[in-house]
């Protein structure tokens, strides 16, 4: 049996940066600090991570010697980068223009919290090897441009984001699709459908549908696993506020990250998903951020909290405003609501997202805002009267999104609302699920399908291209990718339930 290699310090040790690398110009002190971190912790490998367009982390690994064996820092991995095949990455290059390079961002360097062999993890930015400029389809670059656009506008100097990503921890999943068959099967020891299963013994305490929020153990059988996940997240430098079981049966959970600056939060959210998936696997379970894996129970969303700050002051706070909301915040809300249908192309970007965005499952489908009301697309939390806590919560997104693209799109919609003074109208402090059909007819809703969302993006994306944040090629390739590889791919295949409805016609 192979001997395990033990790191000399705790995973997640943050790099002490005395500078940063920008536009492929190396900061000698930062490069030396990375080398010292590798040496002091007996790091064997360096894992270079980057984001594909749909939102999944990609990576490859080099030896630590290869990474630190630098004689001339003006010609190093920090300047020259390291090449990869962009044509093999979803949404990137064509085969005839496949070569791309990665430039490591040392501010993201941590000891990988998942790897058994001591490994340094670094998030990278993507560059074109010919022009030596950032790649327009690099999602992280798009998020950086959105923050830069905010600062140049003079509106604010900082955008804080705080996502509440929900997910399921399951015990078993099987699925397949072929020319002559198609099915999925998921199972959970917590699943309400297993109350009568002979588990030798069946110990009961399985949360009923829509009653998972939130009884103590033994109903909540995942308390200790979530706590272990949180400890691992904390080790990796991801600050956590709270964790708990969520509404649905079958192991729906939520672990909330403390708010952070927008690009940093997108980095942390990918690390968050990486740790949760791997911790689940190490404990004989599987985690999914799929928005609606279970029929007839609540889906998993990612309510996203946002606020803008300038000079250390929260621009969204006004002690005299509705729910202590400033006029700037109301305009920001107006931008979110006006562009919400197009935003869903990035914020709820899967066909499965629209199985969640339906009335009756606490889904925020109605494009209104309200204090406390969780049935509104934009909610104004009122837990605290502190000026620092005032924020807007946009509830339609889910964690199937690419956070760099989704956060950037939400920020751009909010900026557009502020610049053009878009009035969100009066708040609606009613249970929207109990309104009559006549009342609901006057309220706009999010799209009912991914195809509708793509159509909305096609006709409403000028606000995203301001300042060159989203370039037209990004918009075009996103729409084409989603239509051909997801919308059409699903539409062409018979659905299992169609056999139930139509086989005997």
Give your account of this protein's structure.
The protein is an alpha+beta fold and 505 residues long. The chain contains 15 helices and 18 strands. The strands form 3 sheets. Strands 7, 10, 11, 12, 13, 14, 15, 16, 17 and 18 form a 10-stranded mixed sheet that branches. A hairpin with a 4-residue loop joins strand 8 and strand 9. Helix 8 packs antiparallel against helix 10 and helix 8 packs across helix 12.
Strand residue percentage = 15-25%
Q: Tell me the number of strands.
A: 18
Q: What general outline do the C-alpha atoms trace?
A: globular
Given helix and strand content, the structural type is alpha+beta
Query: Residue ranges: pLDDT <50 for 5 or more in a row?
Result: 1-9, 14-25
Distance separating the two termini: 60 Å
Mean pLDDT: 90
What is the share of helical residues?
25-40%
- Biggest sheet descriptor: 10 strands, mixed
- Global Rg: 23 Å
Q: DSSP helix count? A: 15
